[in-house]
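Quick one, T. Sequence first:
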Amino acid sequence: MKVFQWIDKIVTKIEEFILSFAIILITVMIAGNVIAREVFSSGAFYFAYEVSKFAIVIATFMGIAYAARKGRHISMSAFYDFAPFKVRKVMMIVINFFTAIFMFVMAYFCYSFVMFEYNTGAITTSLELPRYLMAIFIPIGFLLAGVQFLRNTYINFTAKAKDKVYLGTDAVDYNDDKDQDVKLEDISV
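Structure tokens:
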């Protein structure tokens, strides 16, 4: 188990680095392009759109697994928030399990898309890089997300989660953080 924890820490650090780098790259490319164009009347950042597009794809699809790990993915939780503990526990297990299956199916289809892009030999306009290099992060992101949602399913079966519901491997349900049930009057509209 120590090996898996070590691998998990390394994967987390790699995900954090990739996401941070992608966001910083988007900022630099967009701001640099605006400054070069408006202040210096230069087209020096002619590749900014493509680099930003690459970084957005990477941040989006690699971020799915990270959000699942931290329990920060988008959820529609109206019924979940009002459910008693045991119902929330079952709902979280079912939701995570079926989401994992969906992520693996999406990874398969996206892998097929990457192979299609690879076989066409298409290149990007400005940088003339193979287009499959951008698309390769899509199935990787879905695959990592599927693994993470399976981990989220598993952690809700462990002794660690006996009296808690885990939204992610690192995130306890916000309803379990406080010792009160959510009431209708607690919700502000």
